[in-house]
Design a protein that fits this description.
14 strands; 337 residues; seven-stranded mixed β-sheet
Length: 337
């Protein structure tokens, strides 16, 4: 069973929820748009299910409800001080700065300091690709990954994503955490009292478990074993070490702040149109021909889901709709029927 809502109504309601947390209307609307779009594209673990936790962090000042985002630029790079902003504000801000920088540069590396949870990184790289750029983004997280037998979490699950324009088609968007499964899937399983598949997580003693609640007290397993750990290390180098000199956040924000990087490239500086577009279409057609009817490119399913949801409404699981309705009741913002 699911509840189906008009995206515009859900977006408007989410914006008003953010406003009750002292977020200015313009910023509330932008954050709501990104969160709802994540839901429309199928990022269920990083969509509306995150709203209650974001409200809690805004109300406790773990996220800054009224950030002043600043930046400094130099040849080939930009450093963004997000001032404790929600990731749904800091991410799009960084994308806009990067796309503007690409007007005079072929490539720009942006690091984001003092940033809240970015949510689905693929949404931010999608924005970059829709602006004509190849984009790669990563965010470092508190330690969450471990190999079997480790005595505790060793490194963040450090999500990473890329987006690439494909002239005449929806952009390619690939978004993964360095864990086998996102922690959000385990949170949902624990909430619903369901087990998780083997190979997802370890318990507090470093042993494999299918108990979602025990997994939440333990560590996530990396995708591809040491390969996933290696990619997590790359994100630490770019999203962690490059933001290491950032001013210390306010004490109440310390745990909620996570550094990130965003790398943007202007394709036409390297391969002029139509050569770039022709090549993108050629290799993707080879891929499709090899895979047959089941071959899909990353981002195609999300694009189709978003188009359908905008026409027919977005389907929310009943449990999530009930949670949002209760949140609205508490904040005196009536949930749309």
């Amino acid at each position: 069973m699911s509840a189906r809502l008009l995206p515009d109504a859900l977006e408007s309601w989410t914006s008003r929820v953010f406003e009750t947390c002292n977020v200015p209307p313009t910023q509330a609307a932008e954050a709501a748009s990104l969160l709802v779009r994540s839901e429309l594209r199928g990022y269920s673990t990083h969509g509306m299910t995150r709203l209650a936790s974001y409200v809690e962090r805004l109300q406790s000042d773990a996220f800054n409800p009224r950030p002043t985002i600043t930046s400094r630029a130099f040849a080939g790079g930009i450093v963004v001080d997000a001032d404790g902003a929600m990731g749904q504000l800091a991410g799009p801000h960084a994308v806009r700065l990067g796309l503007d920088a690409l007007k005079t540069s072929a490539s720009v590396l942006i690091v984001i300091e003092a940033c809240g949870h970015l949510g689905a990184l693929g949404i931010h790289t999608l924005l970059a690709a829709e602006g004509g750029a190849f984009g790669m983004m990563g965010q470092h997280t508190p330690p969450a990954l471990a190999m079997e037998g480790f005595r505790g979490a060793a490194i963040g699950h450090n999500p990473i994503a890329f987006g690439c324009p494909r002239p005449g088609h929806a952009p390619i968007v690939f978004d993964v955490a360095c864990s086998v499964a996102a922690r959000g899937h385990i949170l949902l399983a624990a909430r619903d009292g369901e087990p998780i598949p083997e190979g997802w997580a370890l318990d507090a003693e470093g042993q494999p478990t299918t108990d979602a609640k025990r997994a939440l007290g333990g560590s996530l397993l990396p995708m591809g074993g040491h390969k996933g750990i290696g990619i997590a290390m790359m994100v630490e180098c770019l999203a962690g070490a490059l933001t290491a000199a950032a001013p210390a956040p306010a004490p109440q924000r310390r745990a909620a702040m996570q550094g990130a990087f965003l790398w943007l490239v202007r394709p036409e500086q390297y391969a002029e149109q139509p050569a770039f577009g022709d090549y993108m279409n050629d290799w993707t057609e080879v891929y499709r021909a090899a895979g047959g009817d089941g071959a899909r490119l990353p981002g195609e399913r999300g694009d189709a889901r978003e188009r359908q949801a905008r026409q027919e409404g977005v389907a929310l699981p009943v449990s999530i709709a009930q949670e949002l309705r209760a949140l609205g009741d508490r904040l005196r913002v009536s949930f749309p029927g």
